[in-house]
C-alpha cells in the first residue's frame, strides 16, 4: 500500500508502540530488581556496621579497661605493701592509664555497663552537689576503714566507689605525705584505695564478660530489630558524648564570664587529666565513627557512602574529631590558666563550637544513612 512521503503507515506505528511498551514492561522489573539489590546491599552494610561496632569497637575497649584496672589494682596493692614516693608515682601512672581507658569507652551508656549501676559506680561525675566530698569526709570521720573491701564498698554510695573517689585519695591535699607516712591513717587510706581499685577491676571484668557472652556472641546472628537498636544506640552514644564534652567538660569550667570560670569544675582536675580525658573521649568516638583500623572494621561513618556528598561529610566528621585532639595538644592550659584570659577563653569557646559543628554534621547526615531516628535528645534541652 502506498504511503504519504514522510509518514509511516499505521501498522508500522503500531509495531513501534508495541516494541516501546515491551521495553517499558521489561524496564519496570529491572528497576525493581536494582532497587531490591540496592536495599539488600544497604541492609548488609548496616548489619556489618552493627557487628563491627560490637565486636571490634566496644568489646576491645572493655578488654582494655579490664586490663588497665587490673594493673591499677596490682600497682596500688604493691605500693600499699611498702608505701614510698616512687611507688605512689607508679600508682599515679596506672591511675592515668586506667582512667583514660575508661574515657575511651565512656560514650557507651547502654548494655552491660548499665547493669547494677556500674556506669555511675565507675565514675560519678559531674558531682554538682559535692556528694563525693561530703561522703568521703563522713567516712573518714567515722574511722570505718578497717574492714573496707571491694565487696563491702560495692554496697556503699556510688560517689565512694569509682575513679573520682580514688582521685581524691591519690591526688588530694597532702596526699603523698598522708599515704607514705606509715601510720594508721596511711594504712586506712590504703585499705580504702585498694577497695576502690579492686571494685573497679571487678566491674570492668564483669562488663567485659557480659559484653563478650551477650552482644558479641550474638553479633553474627542479629535480627533486623537488633541491628536497628544497635545502630541507634551507638549513634545516640556518639552524638550524646560530643554534647557532653561541649556542655559539661568544657562549658562548666568556662562559665559565662571570666569571674564565673572555675577550673575545679573540670573533670579529673586534681589529677591533671582533664584534657587527656577529652582526648581519650575523642579517640574512642573517632574509632566508633571511622572504624577500628587495626581490625579493618567499619564504624558508623561507613554508612555515608551513597554519593559524593556523603563522602565529604564522612571525611569532614572524621577529620573534625582528630582536629579536636590536635587542638588540645596545642593548648595545654585550656582548662586551667586559659579560663581567665580573653584569648584563652576564646580558645575554649572555639573548641566547643568546633565540636558542636562536628556533632551537627554527623547528626544531620548519619541518621538517614543508618536508617535510624534518634527522636528527642534530653541534652538538647527544650
TrEMBL record:
Compartments where found: Cell envelope
Principal subcellular localization: other
Span of domain Imelysin-like: 58-308
Keyword check for Signal: yes
One Pfam family this sequence matches: Peptidase_M75
One CC-aspect GO term: cell envelope
Keyword Signal: yes
Keywords tagged on the record: Signal
Name assigned to this protein: Imelysin family protein
Source organism of this protein record: Kaustia mangrovi
Phylogenetic classification of the source organism: Bacteria, Pseudomonadati, Pseudomonadota, Alphaproteobacteria, Hyphomicrobiales
Amino acid at each position: 500500500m502506498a504511503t504519504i512521503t514522510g509518514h509511516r503507515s499505521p501498522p508500522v506505528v503500531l509495531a513501534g508502540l508495541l516494541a516501546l511498551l515491551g521495553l517499558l514492561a521489561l524496564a519496570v522489573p529491572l528497576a525493581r530488581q536494582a532497587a531490591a539489590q540496592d536495599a539488600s546491599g544497604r541492609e548488609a552494610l548496616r548489619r556489618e556496621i552493627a557487628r563491627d561496632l560490637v565486636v571490634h569497637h566496644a568489646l576491645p575497649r572493655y578488654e582494655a579497661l579490664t586490663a588497665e584496672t587490673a594493673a591499677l589494682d596490682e600497682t596500688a596493692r604493691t605500693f600499699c605493701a611498702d608505701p614510698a614516693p616512687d611507688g605512689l608515682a607508679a600508682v599515679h601512672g596506672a591511675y592515668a592509664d586506667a582512667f583514660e581507658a575508661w574515657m575511651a569507652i565512656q560514650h557507651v551508656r547502654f548494655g552491660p555497663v548499665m547493669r547494677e549501676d556500674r556506669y555511675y559506680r565507675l565514675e560519678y561525675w559531674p558531682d554538682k552537689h559535692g556528694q563525693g566530698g561530703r561522703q568521703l569526709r563522713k567516712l573518714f570521720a567515722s574511722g570505718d576503714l578497717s574492714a573496707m573491701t571491694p565487696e563491702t564498698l560495692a554496697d556503699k554510695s556510688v560517689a565512694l566507689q569509682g575513679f573520682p573517689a580514688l582521685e581524691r585519695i591519690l591526688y588530694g591535699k597532702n596526699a603523698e605525705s598522708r599515704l607514705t607516712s606509715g601510720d594508721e591513717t596511711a594504712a586506712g587510706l590504703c585499705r580504702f584505695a585498694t577497695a576502690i581499685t579492686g571494685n573497679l577491676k571487678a566491674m570492668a571484668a564483669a562488663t567485659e564478660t557480659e559484653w563478650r557472652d551477650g552482644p558479641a556472641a550474638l553479633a553474627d546472628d542479629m535480627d533486623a530489630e537488633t541491628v536497628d537498636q544497635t545502630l541507634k544506640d551507638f549513634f545516640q552514644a556518639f552524638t550524646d558524648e560530643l554534647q557532653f564534652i561541649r556542655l559539661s567538660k568544657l562549658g562548666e569550667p568556662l562559665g559565662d564570664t571570666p569571674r564565673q570560670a572555675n577550673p575545679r569544675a573540670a573533670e579529673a582536675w586534681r589529677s591533671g587529666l582533664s584534657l587527656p580525658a577529652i582526648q581519650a573521649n575523642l579517640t574512642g568516638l573517632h574509632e566508633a565513627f571511622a572504624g577500628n583500623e587495626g581490625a579493618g572494621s567499619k564504624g558508623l561513618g561507613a554508612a555515608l557512602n551513597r554519593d559524593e556528598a556523603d563522602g565529604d561529610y564522612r571525611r569532614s566528621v572524621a577529620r573534625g574529631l582528630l582536629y579536636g585532639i590536635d587542638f588540645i595538644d596545642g593548648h595545654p592550659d585550656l582548662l586551667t590558666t586559659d579560663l581567665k584570659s580573653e584569648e584563652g577563653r576564646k580558645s575554649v569557646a572555639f573548641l566547643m563550637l568546633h565540636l558542636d559543628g562536628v556533632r551537627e554534621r554527623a547528626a544531620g547526615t548519619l541518621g538517614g544513612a543508618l536508617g535510624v531516628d534518634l527522636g528527642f535528645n534530653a541534652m538538647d534541652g527544650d
